[in-house]
Amino acid sequence: MSGTARVIVLGCGTSTGVPAIGCLEPTCLSDDPRNKRLRASILIENEDANLLVDSGPDLRQQALTHNIRRVDAVVYTHHHADHTHGIDDLRVFNFIMKKTIPCYAYPDTAKVLRRNFRYIFGEEEKYTGFRPQLTLADVDGTPFEAAGMCIRPFPLEHGGSLVMGIRVGDFAYATDCSGISPESMEILNGVRVLILDALRHREHPSHFTVEQALEVVDILKPEKTYFTHTNYELEYHETNRSLPEGVEMAYDGLEIEIAL
Ligand SMILES: [Zn+2]
Ligand SMILES: [Zn+2]
Q: Which residues, by Cβ under 5 Å, contact ligand 1, an ion?
């Protein structure tokens, strides 16, 4: 496949979002739009099809902000609430597009999605409202096609969970990770633009710190790296000043051109 696509960062905040409810830290009290981060998600706009990565609790707001009128496929990185709990809002795209939306996830993630959202995925369930019309396909390590693009999945460690990273052309998205296996690093090799988890400076059992993320950057040396899933400890401007060339904080609304 060839051509270009556009990545839009719909949200780059940690699970609480930034500001977090009730938080009195300076970043949460900041008026700067760069310090307002919705829950982590991206949209990849191909020529005439859109791929959504995760449907977090802020999906409605993200879709309204960016005037998203179509979602042709959804990739679920993992089952955590901050990546899935906006799933019901996918039904508006069924209304608009009048078709079922294919979703893709690792088997462990798909199992939890089928259990947590039985009213969507459970065939026997009686449900009177209009539920999202979604299909859910189990993904293994094999590249698959979604929204007209070749998606190369690779596993990421996320505490005890497995998260799907994706490589699309010269771009890769690796949210929610605390470790990357040599096999996954191999798939990431040669990536030009990388969006990578970097929660904060202090260690965390299921997320990279800024320092750990920089170690990954140092090995892969992408032309450009953007940190995502960041919390209040990482004020946008102050953190950017401390980062090496080619590495910066993502922000909600960031757009990146990629080559497929
Ligand atoms: Zn998360
Ligand atoms: Zn997570």
A: 15, 82, 176
